[in-house]
Structure formats: structure tokens, C-alpha cells
Amino acid sequence: MTDAPTALIAEDEPLLAAALQAELARAWPELRVVASVGDGHSAVTQALQCLPDVLFLDIQMPGLSGLDAAVELADAWPTAPGSKPFPALVFVTAFDHYAVQAFEAQAVDYLLKPVQPARLQKTVSKVALTLAMQAQSATKEITPSAHLGPALQTTLDQLRALLAPIAPQPAMPRLSQIQVSVGGAIRMVPLQEVIYFEAADKYVRVLTVQHEYLIRTPLKELLPQLDADVFWRIHRGTVVNVRCIDTISRDEAGKLSLSLKGHADKLIVSRLYAGLFKAM
Amino acid sequence: MQHAPTLKRFLQAVAFNTVIAIGISAFGQYTLASNLVFSQCIGLSIWALIDVVQYKLIRQYDTQWRRLLWIVPTAVVLGYGLGSTLASAMLASHDSARWFDEPAKLLGFLFVSLAAGGVITYFFLSREQLAAARLSLAHTQAQAEAAQRQAAESQLTLLQSQLEPHMLFNTLANLRALIEQDPARAQAMLDHLVAYLRATLNASRTTLHPLHVEFDRLRDYLALMQVRMGARLRCALDLPPELADVPVPTLLLQPLVENAIQHGLEPKVEGGAITVQARLHGDTLTLEVLDTGVGLPPDLGSAGFGLTQVRERLATLYGAQGALELMSSSTGSTMVRATFPCSKIAP
Fold it and tell me: How far apart are CA B195 and CA B189, in angstroms?
């Protein structure tokens, strides 16, 4: 790598973003901060535009959390041969017991706010080492056949583990019906009739062959009550009934999409969950 | 009566009867053995009658104890007849016949039995009343302890919700940043933090303070949030001067303002405005917290805890005259309105 390493900072509190940039200037003088954004969605679009080497992502941000932004970016990151490896991720959080445990378990870099210089120095050394190793391996081996670079593959595995429920889940009773309100009445929709669930703003869309309903229960709460063998999460906001999947196809960019039995919609599979679909 | 074991009462009755028998023997009437048999037979018959009848007839001692006034004499007369007949049969003697011959003696023994029956019943009754009172006291104490524990737990939950670690550490991180960039602003922020922490930790949930003090505390919190959120947060506090000294429950509005920030404005990318205003309509004080945030979630989640707290406090202090309303417009703005009588506190 001949160019100076580049970084993007995503932090919604302006003073903290400026402070992190100042601390980074001391801890890693060569690092160039190419963008500083205040919300998760901007983090994704800016990162895709600037293609930085390191991302500092605040966990709690408006719009999209730091973790979800990372997943979205991992989904959209270019993977054509010769494209840049996926950036090193450093999550920043003020206080999140479970997240910190998960970061430790997955060897994901993180910083606690207020950021202490000594701790930042450690993180910087680690990230710099990763980048150096990446640069070395990139010159040595060229892997045109692989769809995803090793950096992206590692990150996807880590993110998938991070998104898995960390807190011990209370034993949830399985649902057999989805209760939806239609007009003034409640309709009982048998679960086997549901083709897929999709998060939509503050609601969750429930799609059957003939109908579409809206329910208020968030996907996150719904998921533990569904049979994991039948309902698969294939995207941050999509849970599909496997019995309704017809075919899985891959487009030229390597993206997986599902066509369904009994429904015209095509569903996009996140890279995070692409491992679910392999020929036997 | 049902509480004390029957065996215990039986043994106590036997003991009383023995004392009476010894007493009669001391006065030189008949032999101790025959006195014992008579005393036990008569005494136990009386005891059994009183015990069974009052078990059947008296359910509530507080209100029905007067029934003893006829139960005891009746049981004594009947028990005396029954017991003495039984004892005569057992001893195969003619003592009873002799007593019937001497009306004065018969009357004397009846009188002794009556007095003894009264005393013994009173003795049992007061002991058991005492035991029942102790039991109910212990029960009341346990209830009070449970209530206290519950209050302490809810106080802790409240404190945790107010001293939310995420808020605290983010605030400290901003403070750390300001110390380097702008020491004067850092000092001002620290002062707000100190005032906020002191108010939160000191707040007694039962007292009142003037409305202008309530607004000062909101100002502290909002100042902290404004440092953190920068241009994303705009606030307006509207307190008419004539309402400055109206007494209001301490930190009543705090959870509402924190909800507006945490659940309304912080999750909104472009941020928004929060308005807190006080109005007086007749005798009714109206306090409103309005935000232009993301609107109410379908499921209130942790926002619900703060609302419940405020609603409960209003209900405790003002009864039906206190109310908390939550309104959400289609544009995403949310309004919470607390109304309660201006000066009165429910008795």
C-alpha cells in the first residue's frame, strides 16, 4: 500500500467526532480521515464512495445503528477482482455490556467512550498490522475465483455472530397463528400461510398468497417465536418461510435472490446469510 | 379458638380442674381423690361444651364475643349436671345425692363452677386473642416490608433509568473533549452535570418544589443534551412568570423530557425541537412536553416506564384530578400533557 491509510468516522455527537479525529491525528499521524458522518445511512453511502481502509462506527446512531451499517456495507461492498478489501472495523460505544462481550468473543476491535489515548494506541497498532498484512497478501496471491475477499469473509462471519442473540433468550412459546387486525376485527392467519415477513418502518408486513397484513410486533420479537427450521432470516428486515422458496439465483455481481412459490416478489439475500443456501 | 391446638386447651383445663379439686380438699370437703374425679368430670364437661358451642356459634370474636355471656352459664349448668352424674356413676357413691339434699352446698358448687368456667374461658380467650393479634401484627409487618422492598426496587429502577449509563458515559466523553477544545464551556457543562446529578440523586418523590426550580432542572438536562447533540437539538422552555412559584411534584417532567429526547429526537437523523410549556386554565395546571421527533413506537418499550411513573405519581398526589395524556400526530411529533390542580394535594 503506497497511499496513506484512510478512515471514515461515523459518530452522531459532533464534539466526539472531532475529539476522535484529534486523538487519531496524535495516535496515527499518517491516517487521513476522509469523511466524518453523523448517522448510519450516511456512513454506508460515504464508505461506498470513499472506500476507506478503516471505519470507526459509533454503535448508537440515528437512522441505522453502527452494527447494522456495517452489515449493509458488507452487503454492498464491491467484490469484483482487484477491488479494495473490506475496511477494518472499529466499533465505538459508550456503554453496552452485551456488545462489548460479543466484540471480545469475536475479536472485533472496539473503543469505549470516553476514548482513552492508550487504548486508542493499541487499537491503532492492531488495525495498522491488519492493513499491512492485507497489503502483503494482496500482492502475493490473487484469488480471482473467490467471490468475496478474505477481509470481507472474515467480517461477515464476525457480524453474523454479533447479530446472533447475545443475551440469553427467554424460552418463547412458539406461535402457530399471526393475529392481525383487519378493520375492527382480529384475523387469525395460520403461520404456514405466511410466505415472508418484512420490516417496514414501524411495522412488519406479513405476506400470504392473497393478502398483505401489517403487524406492530417488531421482527426482533417475532423471530424467537418462530420455528427456526421453517422461518429463515435472509436479510436484516426479511424472514422467509423456506417451504415457499422456489429457486435461488445469483446475479452477475454475485448477489443471491429468491423466487417464491405463490408470490411474484423476489427477495434479496444478504451476504451475511448467503451461507444458508448451498447446493447439497 | 380454632388456632390453638385442642390438646393444649384440654391439658390446661385439666390443670385448672386439679387446682380446684385441691382447693376444695383444703377446705376439708371430702377426699382429694373424689374431689379430683368430680372436678375433672364437671370441669371437662363444661370445657367441652363451651369449646364446641363457641366453635359453632362464634366466628368473629370482635363482634360476637357477647354470645359468651349466655353460652358460658348454660354450659356450666349443663356441664355441671352431666359431669357430676358421670362422676357419681364412676365413684358409685351417693355424693351427688347428698349434694342434692343440701341445696346450699349444691348452690355453692354451682357458683364455684360458674366462676371457674368464666375465669377459664376468659383466660383461654384472652390468650388466643393475643396470639391472633401477634399473628396479624407479624402479617402486617411482612406486608409493610414487602411494600417497602417494592418501593425500594421501583426507586432503584427509576434511578437507573435516570442515570442511564449510556447517557452518563456519552456526557463524560463530551466533557473530556471540551476540556481540551473549550475549557470554559467544559466548566459550564460540568456545572450542569453536577446540578443534574444532585437533583436526580436527591429527588424525594413525595415533595413539591416551585415550577421555576423544575424548569431549572430541565434546563440542566437539556443543556447537557445540547452539547451532545449540537445543532440537532433545539429547545424552548416556556414558563409564564406568574406560574414560577406554583408548587409541583419534584422532577415530574424529567422522565417526559428524557423520553422526548431518547425516543423522539436522538433516533431522528436531522434532529428536531423540544418545547416544554406551562399554562394555567382556571385552577388546573397544564404542563406540556412536545417534540418533533420520530413519533411514538408501536410498542412503547422503555418509554412506557417513565410514563407509568409519572402517571402513578399524579394519581397518588391528585387522585382523579391528575391526568397524563399522550398524543402523537401523523407528522411524527409527540405531545405529553400532564394536568393537575394548581394548589391542592389530595388528602
Answer: 10
Detail the DSSP E strand segments found in A118-237.
177-182, 185-190, 196-200, 203-207, 212-215, 231-235
Cβ-Cβ contacts under 8 Å, A221 against chain B: 299
Q: Is B230 on the interface with A (CB under 8 A)?
A: yes
Rounded CA gap, A267 and A235, in Å?
9
Which among A156, A152, A141, A120 is positioned nearest to A28, based on CA atoms? Answer: A120
CA atoms within 13 A on the CB side of B226: 16
**Greater model confidence, B37 or B192:** B192
Say if the Cβ atoms of A114 and B173 lie within 8 Å: yes
Residues of A with CB under 8 A from a CB of B: 12-16, 18-19, 22, 38-39, 41-42, 60, 62-63, 94-96, 112-115, 202-203, 216-218, 221
Q: What pLDDT, on a 0 to 100 scale, did the predictor assign at position B298?
A: 66
Distance from the Cα of B168 to chain A's closest Cα (Å) equals 8
The neighbouring-strand residues paired with B276 are B237, B289
Confidence of residue B1 (pLDDT cuts 50, 70, 90): very low
B178 in reach of chain A (CB within 8 A): yes
Confidence of residue A35 (pLDDT cuts 50, 70, 90): very high
The residue-averaged pLDDT of A192-204 equals 89
Round to whole Å and give the CA distance between B119 and A275.
90
**A114 cis-preceded (ω within 30 degrees of 0):** yes
pLDDT at A137 over 90: no
B3: pLDDT strictly greater than 90 = no
Residues of A within 8 A of B174 (CB-CB) are: 13, 15-16
Q: What is the pLDDT of residue B342?
A: 85
Between positions 134 and 173 of B, the ones with CB within 8 A of A are: 165-166, 168-170, 172-173
Reported ipTM exceeds the 0.90 cut: no
Inter-chain contact B269–A217, Cβ cutoff 8 Å?
no
Grid coordinates 490473487 are at which residue? A142
Q: Which residue of A has its CA nearest to B297?
A: A202
Question: Measuring CA to CA, how many Å separate A124 from each of A130, A156, B135?
Answer: 10, 22, 68
For chain B, what percent of residues have pLDDT higher than 90? 35
DSSP reduced 3-state for B77: helix
- Per-residue buried b or exposed e for B247-280, using 16+ beta carbons within 10 Å of the residue's own CB: bbbbbbbbbbbbbbbbbbbbbbbebbebbbbbee
pLDDT at position A23: 95
**For residue A39, what pLDDT band results from cuts at 50, 70 and 90?**
very high
Q: Percentage of residues in chain A with pLDDT exceeding 70?
A: 93
Spatial contact of A27 and A7, defined as CB atoms under 8 Å apart: no
Which residue does chain A place closest to B181, by CA atoms? A19
Q: What is the pLDDT of residue B279?
A: 95
Among candidate residues A258, A265, A223, the one with its CA nearest the CA of residue A243: A258
The number of residues making up chain B comes to 347
Rounded to whole angstroms, the Cα distance separating A96 from A102 reads 10
- Helices in B203-273 by DSSP H: which ranges? 211-229, 254-259
Residue with cell 458515559: B169
